[in-house]
Design a protein that fits this description.
Length: about 190
């Protein structure tokens, strides 16, 4: 949804291939969808896990693997969250995890992109993440090194088999099809 994979950031230092682990405690994924054709509803996922390899000398050698625990969906409404976890939507009993596997990391000007395969609700589709707010690597108080950033994309929920909906009297539907996804990721690597 997944994640953010943002660690294709250019820093002033030439680091060659560096391996990072996504910091679950400091990373999250959020989504926004149109409700009743009039407003946006936002939710979040936590428990993002994965690894990132970033090679600033050869972006083609960079890659990202990430997974998200779908059961962590949280829209701040318990009844709605229960519905989202049901077979009408995510069906977490059958599909507890969504996964992202990058296929290409590249740059156009100052913008980084990550192409990859997103698997959600048992369906795999190609998506492209746009990376922004990429940080330089900093040393953590615990002695390791940390990077962070934000990635965004848009997906069609119906393309992943999430088709539940109802029409409304004035026209339109209860739940929009386009989902805006934002991944905020912090990743760490051990010190020397």
């Amino acid at each position: 949804m997944i994640r953010n994979l943002l660690f294709v950031f250019g820093s002033a230092l030439s680091l060659a291939a560096q391996s990072y682990q996504i910091d679950t405690a400091h990373s999250g994924a959020s989504f926004t969808v149109k409700h009743m054709m009039v407003t946006n509803v936002t939710g979040r996922f936590s428990n993002i896990k994965g690894s990132i390899v970033y090679d600033d000398k050869d972006l083609a050698k960079s890659h990202i693997e990430a997974s998200i625990d779908v059961d962590t969906v949280n829209t701040n409404q318990a009844k709605r969250d229960a519905h989202l976890k049901s077979a009408d939507f995510f069906d977490v009993a059958k599909y507890p995890t969504m996964r992202f596997q990058s296929t290409k990391v590249y740059r156009t000007g100052n913008v980084f992109f990550v192409d990859g395969d997103l698997t959600l609700h048992g369906v795999t589709k190609a998506v492209t993440l746009t990376l922004s707010e990429l940080s330089p690597e900093v040393k953590s108080p615990q002695g390791g090194f940390v990077r962070g950033g934000r990635a965004t994309t848009k997906i069609s929920r119906s393309a992943f088999g999430l088709k539940w909906n109802k029409t409304i009297d004035t026209g339109g539907v209860v739940v929009g099809d386009e989902i805006q996804v934002t991944l905020d990721i912090e990743a760490t690597r051990p010190g020397a």
